[in-house]
From TrEMBL:
The gene is Ccdc171. Residues 22-34 have a biased composition (Basic and acidic residues). Residues 95-182, 208-291 form a coiled coil. Residues 1-47 are annotated as: Disordered. This is Coiled-coil domain-containing protein 171-like. The keyword Coiled coil applies. The keyword Zinc does not apply. Keywords: Coiled coil.
Amino acid sequence: MSAGESRATLRKQALHRSTTSKYRDSKHSMRESQKTSAASSGKSSADEIARLQEVIVHLQKEREHSQKSEGSNFDKEEDLRWKLNRSEKEKLDIITKYNEEISRYESQVAKLRAQLEKGEAIRQNVEYEIALVRKDAGLEKCTAEERMANLYQVKEQLKAQNEEMQQRIADLQNALHISQKAREEDQRVLQSELEERDRIIQTYNTDTELLSAERDRLEEVLQGQEETLMNLHKKLMELEMEQNKDADALRRQASELEYSAEREERLKKELETALQRVKNLDENVESERAAHLESKFNSEIIQVNFVFSTMFN
């Protein structure tokens, strides 16, 4: 075997060992990544792993093919090395991407764990509060039962009071009905009394008008009699003046005594007649005044009686 072939063989063996070691490491890292991120990577991570496995299988096939063709040239080995490096680079990129996703998922898991712990604490607090609420609910239930019993007693008392009030209402309604009947009867009596009072007032007004007319007539008669009396007094004064004149004439004319005596006798008779007429007129005036005063007194008595009857009614 030549030196070039031995170097090529050594390179192939080294490449095979390196490829095998990298393949083993990649499978181990893939298993670890699958174990840590299987629950959260999803469909995209599975696709990347499948693609990586296909690349590895392709490289293995190329390695087997390179082992079978040991006599291939050095350029093909370099090409395989370049492809292997590229696959390793892609694998490293994928691993880096997986690590980033794992870090993100771990961060999310930590957040979820914190939220879970917080939720657990909240759950414990809620359970504690529920226990307190149940305890309070039990106490409130007992209190409510006591209140229900008290309310039932109050209800029975109110029921009895309601029945009593209903009976009282019925009694009051009966009394109200009786009082309404009595009130209607009183109203009828009062109405009849009012009608009687109106009739009396109307009669009184009629009598008052008649009395007023009679009073006016009597006042007119009295005024006429007073004028007649004044005229008689005037005539009497004139007669007295004439008598004085006649007396003077008698004293002056003694010779005419007989004539004067006769005239005096006649004048005396006329005077007596006039005095009698004046006396009669005075008596008539007094009687008219007495009748007028009596009528006025009777009218005032009727008014007073009406006022008293109105006040007492």
